[in-house]
Amino acid sequence: MADGADSVDGPEMEQIKIVLNTLYLCIAFAMTHIAKHNGAQAAVDFKAELLSALKSGDLNMALMEVTKTFDFVIAKIEALGQPEA
Prior knowledge:
Helix content: 55-70%
Mean pLDDT: 89
Oligomer: single chain
Number of strands: 0
Largest sheet: none
Strand content: under 5%
């Protein structure tokens, strides 16, 4: 997905960090929303299905190309707490 740039630094890297953090917070928000409206078990199930889809490449096969990136994403999703309903 890179537009020919091999490295990103400076302001672009800060923007990437903001975007990634925002997306991570959106997933946490979604889990809380699911828990409030469908129960805590539904949020747990969502997280499990999300991890399964990521690990199998169903969401994005490109994630599996670089082990370090794959491990980072999986660890971040696994670290999401269990929301209360």
